[in-house]
Design a protein that fits this description.
alpha/beta; 2 domains; 22 helices; globular
C-alpha cells in the first residue's frame, strides 16, 4: 500500500522484505494540523468510554489556538456527563451537547461509542451526519457490521479510521508524558475507507498526529477489524487469560507455592517476558536463557504452537465470516438480563492481589515458550491472510507488551479482562476457556514426556522474518515507556 499526503512527509520502511510507508509524528507537527484539517470547524467526539476521554482531550490540546473546536456528544441520560464536565467539556462553554446534535454539527465525527451501540444506532447516525463531512472510526467494527448485515455506507461522506495501538488510558498517559518529551504517544494505524473530496488521507493523518502518535502506518478498516477483534480473542486478552489459568494450576500441581505459581505464570508474562520482548524481541527472549532454559522453552514452544494455531485459525475464520460480529451484537443485547460477572474470583487472581512474596517476576522458560508460540501462531495466521507487517507487529506484539501488559502487570490480567471494551470482554470470556482447555489437555501433558520435538517448526521460528520486522517497529515506538498510574 502507498498513500499520498499534501501536508505531511512520508517515509519508506522495509518489513520482512516488503515496503511500507509511515508518517512520523511529534509536537513540532501540531502547527500543520489546521492545514490538514482545512474546512473543518468542529470535531465531534461521540462517546466517553475508553478512547473518548483520551482523544477529546489530546485533540483539544493539540489544536489549541487553531479555531477548531472539539465538542463531546453524549446521550442526554449518559452517566459520563459529570466526568466530561470535570474534563472541561461543558454545555456552558459550547463543548458538550446531545449526541445527535453534535454529529449533525460536526465536520469530522469521531464515533467512539461501543460497538453494539454503533450497530444499534447505525441508521440514525448515518441520517445525522451532514453531507461532505467525515466519519472517523477508531475500530473497524462498524465496517464489519455493515458488511455482515447487508447495509451500505452513504456515498456523500468521507470515512476514515485512526486506530491507536493501545487502550484509551495509554493514549492519554503517553500524550501527557509527551509534553516534556517530544514524540511520546501511542502508535496508530490509519485507513481511508471512502474519500469523496481528496481530503480524507490528510484528515486521518492529522487526527493521528493530534492524538500524539509517534508513528502512523497504513492499513484498511477491513484488515483492522479482523486483526483487532481476532487479536483481542487471541494473544491480547483471551489467550493470555486461558494460558495463565492453566499454567498456574500446572505449577501448583508440581509443588510450587501459590505466590511462586502466580509469579511464574501470569506475572512472568506481564512483567519479565514482556520487558524482554520489548527490549530484545521474540528471538532475544529465547537467546537470553541459559542452555537448560532454552531446551525447556523449545519444548514448550513446539508443544504449544499447533494447538494455539488451531484455535486461532478458528477465531480468525469466525471473525472473517461475520459470525463473531453477529455474536457480539447478540450478546450485548442479552447483557441486561445476563450481565457479565468478574473473572477475578479464582484462586490465582486472589493470590496475585495479596502476594506475600517480595520476589520480582522472572522469565520462566516454559511460560515464555508457551506465550511466544501463541504469539507467533497469531503472527503467522495474519501474515498468511495478507495483513501488512506493520499492523501485525504493532497490533499483535507491541500493543501487548508495551500497552496492555504493563497495565496487567500493575493490576492483573483479570482486571484488564474485566475493564476492557464490551466487545473485547465478551470475546475474552468466550475464547479463554478454549485456550485453557487446549493447554491442559494437549500442551502441558507433553511437558511430562520425552517426546521428540518438531525441529522444522522451531527452525521456522528461528528464521522467521518477523524478527526483522519487529526490530524495525520497536525502533519506531515512543521514546519513553508508559508510566502506569492507578
Amino acid at each position: 500500500m502507498a498513500f499520498n499526503s499534501t501536508v505531511f512527509q512520508k517515509e519508506k520502511i522495509v518489513l520482512g522484505g516488503t515496503e511500507e510507508w509511515i508518517v512520523r509524528g511529534g509536537r513540532h507537527l501540531f502547527p500543520l494540523l489546521p492545514k490538514a484539517f482545512a474546512g473543518i470547524r468542529q470535531i465531534g467526539v461521540i462517546g466517553w468510554s475508553s478512547q473518548g476521554p483520551a482523544q477529546a482531550q489530546n485533540l483539544r490540546e493539540s489544536l489549541a489556538g487553531s479555531g477548531i473546536r472539539v465538542k463531546v456528544g453524549l446521550r442526554a441520560d449518559s452517566h459520563s456527563i459529570p466526568n466530561v464536565e470535570k474534563a472541561g467539556f461543558t454545555e456552558a462553554n459550547g463543548t458538550r451537547g446531545d449526541m445527535y446534535d453534535v454529529i449533525a454539527g460536526s465536520d469530522l465525527v469521531l464515533l467512539l461509542i461501543s460497538d453494539a451501540a454503533q450497530a444499534d444506532n447505525y441508521d440514525r447516525i448515518m441520517a445525522a451526519i451532514r453531507p461532505g463531512a467525515t466519519l472517523g472510526l477508531s475500530h473497524g467494527f462498524l465496517v464489519a457490521y455493515v458488511k455482515s448485515s447487508g447495509k451500505a455506507f452513504r456515498n456523500d461522506i468521507n470515512i476514515v479510521g485512526v486506530c491507536p495501538k493501545g487502550m484509551g488510558p495509554s493514549v492519554r498517559r503517553l500524550y501527557e508524558q509527551g509534553r516534556d518529551i517530544n514524540g511520546a504517544g501511542i502508535n496508530c494505524s490509519f485507513a481511508v475507507h471512502q474519500d469523496i473530496d481528496g481530503k480524507a488521507t490528510d484528515q486521518a493523518l492529522a487526527w493521528a498526529i493530534g492524538l500524539g502518535s509517534p508513528c502512523t502506518f497504513e492499513t484498511t478498516l477491513e484488515f483492522e477489524y479482523k486483526s483487532d477483534i481476532f487479536g483481542e480473542r487471541g494473544i491480547l486478552l483471551g489467550a493470555v487469560h486461558g494460558i495463565c489459568e492453566s499454567l498456574y494450576r500446572w505449577f501448583r500441581s508440581h509443588g510450587r507455592q501459590q505466590d511462586d505459581a502466580f509469579l511464574d505464570s501470569a506475572r512472568s508474562i506481564t512483567g519479565a517476558i514482556s520487558r524482554q520482548i520489548s527490549a530484545a524481541g521474540l528471538l532475544g527472549t529465547y537467546e537470553a536463557l541459559d542452555e537448560g532454559g532454552r531446551q525447556l522453552f523449545k519444548k514448550a514452544y513446539c508443544a504449544c504452537y499447533g494447538p494455539a494455531a488451531d484455535i486461532l485459525t478458528e477465531i480468525y475464520e469466525e471473525v472473517e465470516s461475520g459470525n463473531e460480529i453477529r455474536s457480539v451484537v447478540s450478546a450485548a443485547h442479552r447483557l441486561n438480563r445476563f450481565p457479565m460477572s468478574e473473572i477475578a474470583s479464582t484462586e490465582m487472581w486472589q493470590v496475585g492481589r495479596s502476594l506475600r512474596s517480595n520476589r520480582q517476576s522472572e522469565i520462566d522458560p516454559l511460560t515464555a515458550g508457551v506465550y511466544v508460540a501463541t504469539m507467533m501462531a497469531q503472527v503467522d495466521i495474519l501474515r498468511a491472510k495478507g495483513h501488512p507487517y506493520s499492523e501485525i507487529v504493532n497490533e499483535s506484539i507491541i500493543e501487548a507488551i508495551d500497552s496492555l501488559n504493563p497495565y496487567m502487570d500493575f493490576k492483573d490480567v483479570a482486571y484488564m479482562v474485566d475493564n476492557c471494551s464490551t466487545t473485547a470482554r465478551l470475546g475474552a470470556r468466550k475464547w479463554a476457556p478454549r485456550f485453557d482447555y487446549a493447554m491442559t489437555q494437549s500442551v502441558l501433558p507433553v511437558m511430562e514426556t520425552s517426546r521428540e520435538q518438531n525441529e522444522a517448526l522451531f527452525q521456522r521460528f528461528l528464521d522467521s522474518d518477523v524478527h526483522q520486522a519487529l526490530s524495525v517497529c520497536l525502533a519506531l515506538r515512543p521514546p519513553v515507556s508508559i508510566a502506569v498510574l492507578s
